[in-house]
Amino acid sequence: MITPNKNCLLCTRLKNYRNKYKKLKPKWHNSPVESFGSINSKLLIVGLAPGLQGANKTGRPFTGDYAGNTLFPTLIKNKLALGSYKEIYNDGLKLNNTRITNSVRCVPPQNKPNNIERINCRKFLISEIHNMKKLKIILALGLIAHEEVLKVFNLQLSLNKFKHGKIHNINENLLMFNSYHCSRYNINTKRLTPEMFNIIIKSISNRLQLF
After folding, report:
1. Quick check: pTM over 0.70?
2. Alpha-carbon distance 87 to 80, whole Å?
3. How many percent of the chain have pLDDT more than 90?
């Protein structure tokens, strides 16, 4: 499987941003963030990119930022994770038949990767998905994750539009669920509520039991 080098040089802007925080916060992770969970999982959750004080700090996707406070308790509630989430990488939390990654592996300024950065990082998502031999469901959190998954399979965006709660047939063996990203902004504005998010995760958990 292809993964980014610890000191990945593919994106100059992202490299410089990481290096800035290596000086400011030398104890932080400040490198591309590896996926969390078994490669043999049937569920892959795809987010946008590491948060500056979240995964970029802790080295684990969604860990330490606001989104993790919604994601991990909901996974635990629906038996897709075991243990307790404590916002640190070594809290002992285990994912159950679930793997979590980001479409862009390095923290971007203002949490907004540009198109070149998305293209540069896409090969890692392609490799990851194609190496998940038991994969049955992908959960795309937000529009960019949705678009990047479609590009992995060369599917037209115009024929597979993002909509919260929608299920897309990627192929005869793979489904993609859409959800608004569980970000601080979406939760605070109630674009996404914990109840709405739980409905999505519960539906996925029930589907996985059929495979």
Report:
1. yes
2. 17
3. 99
